[in-house]
Design goal:
Elements: H1 3-6, E1 8-14, H2 18-29, E2 34-38, H3 44-48, H4 51-67, H5 83-93, H6 100-108, E3 112-115, E4 117-120, E5 125-129, E6 135-146, E7 150-152, H7 160-163, H8 168-173, E8 180-184, H9 188-199, E9 203-208, H10 219-232, E10 235-238, E11 242-248, E12 251-256, E13 261-264, E14 266-269, E15 273-275, E16 307-309, H11 320-338, H12 356-359, E17 362-365, E18 370-375, H13 378-383, E19 388-394, H14 399-404, E20 411-417, E21 422-430, H15 437-445, H16 450-453, H17 466-476
Helix pairs in contact: 2-11, 4-5, 4-9, 9-10
């Protein structure tokens, strides 16, 4: 075999995070030779700096909060969390930032791993610069898939680099709790990391530029989470921007636009994400470096016959589970197109169409209380032109909620399409609601008629009885 032949594959995947791994799994299952290029750890952001470590930090926090609401148990869990044990458990879930197991899995499916920085070098060509500086060019017979994810964005503040701010990576991998932590942002990362570090011993000040937290969910979600953070001891300030940040010795000094001066040991900026396409060679195929990649529902980049993009980089839904969903569809689409006579099912909800990206994206925010949603919020449904009505239920009225936690606080909303009599969106906020959201996802994706949902009887006494309360509220409105 010549060197040129050894560098030729049916599919080349740029990025070995969960999304890239799923593309490789599906293309290999279809019998296509697949190369995967990764410049960091195989397993990607989710495994080492996002989903897994953040949830390992948050699980003890939420479990303790739940236990404190159970009569007969609350006195047993009044002390502080064992921060060192929590951090050690987090380290275990990141495999101490070693990717041996992930590499073994990737090689086990028959994909070939190339370590180094990959960038496009023209049509169907990927140049890989290895850690030792050597370069080789891979060619793809059928497809190149960009699965390079996104990176945290820092604001343009003078001298910020000298402050050494945290991003989501430092927040999920820190080996000790800072005494004082300022968190800047109002989204999921900000809310989750404020929850985790406040419970692990930090005094948290949360600075939110907007009106409240979790602005992409129903307004009551952010209100309930902010209220719980305040009750836990965090200082939550909305309508507040950062004017300047400096580090004086070991102290971070933050000045807000209102003139307030806040001192801290660390500062976390959770203020958005940008695509990791800066040095990807997009210009060699007529695209703009550093840009998000626009794709059709089969994951193919607009204007290309061979270039695909999945996960964060496509800017559809910056969530691991949604990226893996896209990856399964893209893998199947590439295989069908490679077969020559393969017929693609790209109709809505077809096998090669990522329809859920538009209509049924589920998400859980692992705060205390948890916030979970799927589909459209009331405002989104109205902007989309649907004639809808929202029905709300106080979760404390559900028998199972009261048994789950003494003094249970939470809220549920169902957005109903009045013309089609189906559910367009659902939001739950309260302890334990993350496990409810898949039932809502099935209702939204399946476009289950309201008349049929009446026959989906929830078990008593569980929190899922909220479904009956929501249907009753809709009927009686």
């Amino acid at each position: 075999m010549t060197e040129t032949e050894s560098n030729a594959f049916d599919v080349v995947v740029l990025g070995a995070g969960p999304v890239g791994e799923n593309v490789a799994d599906r293309t290999r299952a279809a019998g296509l030779s697949t190369a995967v290029v990764e410049s960091e750890l195989v397993g990607g952001e989710c495994s080492y700096w996002a989903c897994m470590p953040s949830k390992a930090l948050l699980r003890p926090v939420i479990a303790r909060a739940d236990a404190r609401r159970v009569p007969g148990l609350r006195r047993s869990v009044q002390g502080p969390l064992d921060t060192s044990e929590v951090l050690a458990h987090r380290n275990y879930y990141t495999s101490d930032w070693k990717d041996d197991g992930q590499v073994q899995w990737l090689e086990g499916i028959g994909a070939r791993l190339f370590r180094g920085h990959g960038r496009l070098a023209g049509e169907r060509r990927v140049a890989v610069t290895a850690p030792d500086g050597t370069e080789r060019v891979l060619t793809a017979r059928h497809a190149v898939v960009v699965a390079t994810g996104s990176r945290a964005v820092l604001p343009d503040l003078p001298g910020l680099a000298e402050v050494r701010p945290w991003t989501s990576r430092e927040a999920t991998s820190a080996q000790e709790a800072p005494g004082r932590l300022v968190v800047v942002g109002g989204g999921v990362v900000a809310a989750e990391m404020a929850t985790a570090w406040q419970a692990l011993g930090s005094q948290v000040t949360l600075l939110v530029r907007g009106k409240g937290l979790l602005s992409r969910m129903e307004p009551f979600a952010g209100e309930l989470v902010a209220g719980a953070l305040t009750e836990a001891g965090a200082d939550v300030r909305t309508g507040t921007s950062v004017e300047s940040v400096t580090r004086e010795g070991g102290t971070v000094v933050v000045v807000t636009d209102g003139g307030d001066r806040i001192e801290a040991d660390e500062i976390l900026f959770a203020t958005g994400r940008a695509p990791r396409t800066d040095d990807l060679g997009l210009d060699t195929v007529g695209l703009e470096n550093g840009s998000w990649l626009e794709v059709d529902d089969s994951g193919r980049v607009t204007g290309s016959e061979w270039l695909y993009a999945v996960g964060d980089v496509s800017h559809r839904a910056l969530l691991t589970h949604q990226g893996k969903y896209q990856a399964r569809i893209v893998g199947a689409a590439i295989a069908a197109r490679a077969a020559g006579d393969g017929v693609l099912d790209t109709e809505p909800w077809g096998a090669h169409a990522a329809t859920a990206d538009h209509a049924a994206v589920p998400q859980v925010v692992f705060t205390d209380p948890e916030a979970a949603s799927v589909g459209l919020s009331l405002a989104e449904a109205e902007r989309a032109g649907h004639r809808v009505r929202a029905v709300d239920v106080d979760l404390s009225s559900v028998a199972g909620a009261g048994l789950y936690a003494d003094g249970y606080k939470g809220r549920a909303r169902m957005v109903v399409d009045l013309e089609e009599e189906i559910v367009r969106g659902v939001t739950f906020v309260g302890p334990g609601v993350g496990e409810l959201i898949h039932s809502a996802t099935i209702a939204v994706v399946g476009q289950v008629p309201i008349s049929r949902l009446w026959h989906a009887v929830p078990s008593y006494p569980t929190i899922s009885e909220v479904w009956l309360r929501l249907l009753e509220a809709y009927r009686d409105a």
